Structures are given as C-alpha cells and as structure tokens.
Amino acid sequence: MSTVLQPVGQLVGPASNESTQKGSGDTVVKFGVVGYGYWGPNVVRNLDQLEASTVVAVCDKSPTARKRIHKSYPHVKVVAETADLMSSPDIDAIAIVTPVWTHYELTKAALQNGKHVFVEKPFTSDSAQAEELINLAAKKNLKIMVDHTFLFTGAVKKIGQLLEEGTLGKIYYYDSTRVNLGLFQHDINVIWDLAPHDLSIIDHLIKETPEAVSATGQSHLNGFEDVAFITVYFPNKIIAHINVNWLSPVKVRTTLIGGEKKMLVWNDLEADEKIKVYDKGVHVSSREGLYNLLVNYRSGDMWAPQVEQVEALRKELAYFVDCILQDQTPFNDGIAGLRVVKLLEAASKSVRNQGAVVHL
Ligand SMILES: NC(=O)c1ccc[n+]([C@@H]2O[C@H](COP(=O)([O-])OP(=O)(O)OC[C@H]3O[C@@H](n4cnc5c(N)ncnc54)[C@H](O)[C@@H]3O)[C@@H](O)[C@H]2O)c1
Asked: What is the pLDDT of residue 285?
C-alpha cells in the first residue's frame, strides 16, 4: 500500500483536516460500518487491522449484533441508528454490509453526508437506483466501491493473467456451478444472492459487452427462486452459463473456461491446486467439404499454476482505502456494480418468462 498521501477531497468536518494516527503515523481513513450480521464482521476485522484504515463506529439495529460488536471491539463506538454514523464528522467513509434492499437508501444518505461508500454486492435492487447513486457520487466527488470480492482472489487474478497472455487462446465459454444447501435469503432469490459473484467475474474477465441473457429458475419453498440457470451471450460466440442453487446436497464451486488453445478448471474448494490448465482441445478441418470433417482431439499435459493465497476482502479494502487516499477511481466502482445489476435484472425478467431471451 502506498503511503504517499494526497488531499482526501470530500471529507467532512475535522476528518478532512486532521489525520488519525495509527501504526507508523500514516494518515488513515476513518470508517463507519453498517451491518454486523454474517459478512459485516469480516469487513470490520479487516478495516480494523489495515494500517491505513480504522473503524470509528459500527451500527446494527439488532441488539444481539450490537453486543457481539462491543465484545469483539470494546474501543469501537456501537450505535443502533445509521443517522449517528452518517452525520458524524469523525467518519470519512461508510461500509454498508446490510441486505440489498437497504443499499440504495444507506448509500444515498452516506453520499449526501459527504462520505465515500463501500457497499456490498449486489450494488442496488435496480439499475435506476444505481444510476442515481453514481451521479450523486460524481457530483460530490466521492468514491463508491461495490464489494465484488472474487475479483481480488488469487484465482481470478491468475485466470485474468492467463487470458491476457493468450494462454487459453480465443475464449469459447465460461461455465460455473455455484451450489450448496442454503443459506436461504428472505428478501432475494438465489440469482441476486449468488450470481453477482459470477456476473462480476465475467464482467471483469471477458472483454466484450454482453448482448443478451436467458435464464430459467424455480421456487420450491419460500416464493423466491432457489434454483436457477443463467446464460449470458457475448459477441464472438462467447457464452457464459451460471448454475446457482440453494437446494444442492453438496457444495460445489467449480468453473470451466474453454478456449481455443487450452481449457481450465477452477475448483475454488481446492486448498492448493485451485486452477488446473489442460492442454486439451479440438481442431476441425475439412478436406472435401462439410461432409468429410476431420476432427482432431488434442490431449496434452495438465499443469496447476501458482495461485496467490490472500484474503480477497482484505486486498479489496486496502485498495479502496488507497483509492480514497490517492484520489483514484476503483475498477469495481458504482459503474461496474451497475453492469452487474443490469445482468441480474435481465436474468430476473427472463426467469419470469420461462427463459425468454432478454436483449441488453
Ligand atoms: N462479498 C461477499 O462475498 C458476501 C458474502 C456474504 C454476504 N454479502 C453481502 O453482504 C450483505 C449482508 O449480508 P449478510 O449475509 O451479512 O446479511 P445478514 O442478514 O446476516 O446481516 C445484515 C445485518 O445488517 C443489519 N441491518 C439491516 N438493516 C440495517 C439498517 N438499516 N441499519 C442497521 N443495521 C441493519 C441486520 O440487523 C443484520 O445484523 C448482502 O448484501 C450480501 O449480499 C457479501
């Protein structure tokens, strides 16, 4: 992380003029965190541990959650009302780690109060909300980062590198299976819960603009789809398929990426060899027209490239803090979040019409 500090811009009150000292005396970004349920503790822990950030206050409307915060972080202010964070002159940035239906209101309040925002995936419940927030942040010269955690994993970084170097050749498909038993959400379906991961990954890795989405799904228990199959069509015959399911007896996190030259398997549940690259492929040639196709199968070596072992969320939050301090726009900004929300909207629309193609 860089320690060369630039003016922070839109910090309000004393936070814009004074720097809290931490560790070696670097200027630190002071955070308020909203939401301390399942994912919030990971955000708080990392922000608390990073050299260039500190957690000033955490808000949760649940008394049980507030007790847990106080027990783990006795030095941190614990509040029940978000207004206490939003208006605090001691806070530079707000991390929003609450359910998606709250993201719009909370992000808007934070931006209106001059705070940078780190907001969980998916960015918002619809694209109009996302667009409004992007414009508001731009007007106020504030940063939005959407937590697309997987983009900061060693695996996605390595796959990006392999694609960029041309190791796989022209990409044919991305095919992901992200299934497990639960956790059932009460406000969103399995698409809005699990697919943002893959949609943000394909948005990052595939350097083409998606053209259309088709999706099917079914709800069996609580009125929200618990099983879904999403297909995203890109130019140049690139196709992505995402299988998300809360009703799977086993947990699977496996992605296949097929290319003209090589193919890879990414098993995120593997401890060591998460990515395996196969020198396998098919070459089709025709000597006497279409009826005499010669199909050659190539089956060469397999290798497992080194994948950096990092806590992705820690890397991501460190990058966000750096973006604030250096006045840089994160690549996983509100606009990236909006692209994912548009794909989610298209998938939901298609599901309602039993897989009808939705053009983007
Ligand atoms: N990036 C990832 O890998 C990842 C993983 C899990 C969850 N998430 C995302 O994190 C967000 C939260 O998910 P979760 O599983 O932690 O949910 P959760 O329900 O376990 O926790 C949410 C917490 O927020 C609190 N809360 C809700 N509204 C509030 C409000 N207005 N003011 C104060 N507190 C409020 C609740 O009391 C609860 O403690 C979701 O957007 C989810 O998609 C991301």
From this structure: 81
| Tokens linked to 227 | 């099983």
Question: Rounded to a whole number, what is the distance in angstroms from the first to the last CA of the chain?
Answer: 38
Q: State the closest ligand 1 atom to the C-alpha of 39, by its place in the atom list counted from 1.
A: 16
For 55-92, the pLDDT digits (tens) are: 999 999 999 999 999 999 999 999 999 999 999 999 99
Q: 84 CB less than 6 Å from ligand 1?
A: no
**CB-ligand 1 contact for 124 (6 Å cutoff):** no
120 Cβ closer than 6 Å to some ligand 1 atom: yes
State how far the Cα of 259 lies from the Cα of 262, in Å rounded to an integer: 5
Angle separating helix axes 334-352 and 190-205, nearest 10 degrees = 130
This prediction has a pTM of 0.92
Ligand 1 lined by 258 (C-beta under 6 Å)? no
Asked if residue 59 has its Cβ within 6 Å of ligand 1, the reply is yes
CA of 348 to the centre of ligand 1 (A): 22
* Distance between CA atoms of residues 269 and 253, nearest Å: 6
Contacts of residue 259, defined as CB under 8 A and 6 or more positions apart, other chains included, come to 163, 167, 168, 169, 170, 171, 172, 281
